[in-house]
Design brief:
The chain is α+β, with helices and mostly antiparallel strands. 32% of the residues lie in helices and 25% in strands.
Length: 182
């Protein structure tokens, strides 16, 4: 009931016919507006309505807003770059597993085959967070490594390092045997 009274007072507070509209001249036919159009014009003349702007003014405002947002993005990206550089400096003590110029990647894995002469097949277990869901995803990869003295056998845990292509599939070389199989 109270809500109905509020609505009726609000409706009566806003004029249906705009006050600022000049009366039509006698020679001109009167402008016939629907109720909806009259309400819309009255609302546009009320408090809080923006004045009509020219195309140039709107384009200038848009350009200013875009410039402001671009400045904001630029400073945010610069800050992120500095943070990444700071964290990269902290990681200098860790072994290089990412691509850095002049540093060879090293991997640790288990020998799954030693049948080929001077070649071992090593299985690498990889656990990393999923890019979107952040859940730890475990995958494995096999790679062929050069074993000059045929000293690694099935089940051994070995460390291999990246090298130049030695054959069609061999791009790694055995560095050391970390643990012998039993």
């Amino acid at each position: 009931m109270i809500e109905e009274q509020d609505q009726t007072t609000e409706a009566s507070a806003q004029p249906l016919v705009p006050d600022a509209d000049p009366a039509p001249t006698p020679g001109e036919p009167g402008e016939q507006l629907s109720k909806k159009e009259r309400r819309q014009r009255a609302r546009n003349r009320g408090a809080g309505a923006r004045p009509q702007r020219t195309l140039e003014e709107r384009l200038a405002e848009r350009a200013e807003e875009r410039k402001r947002l671009a400045d904001h993005r630029r400073t945010r990206r610069q800050r992120e770059r500095e943070q990444r550089a700071a964290t990269a400096g902290e990681r200098q003590g860790t072994p290089a597993t990412e691509r850095e110029p002049g540093r060879r990647r090293s991997r640790q894995g288990v020998v799954v085959s030693d049948k080929a002469n001077k070649t071992i097949t090593v299985k690498i277990e990889i656990a990393r967070p999923h890019r979107v869901y952040k859940k730890i995803v475990r995958t494995s990869a096999t790679l062929h490594a050069h074993d000059e003295r045929n000293e690694a056998h099935i089940g051994d845990t070995v460390r291999v390092v990246e090298s130049r292509p030695l054959s069609r599939t061999k791009r790694w070389r055995l560095v050391e045997i970390l643990e012998r199989a039993r």
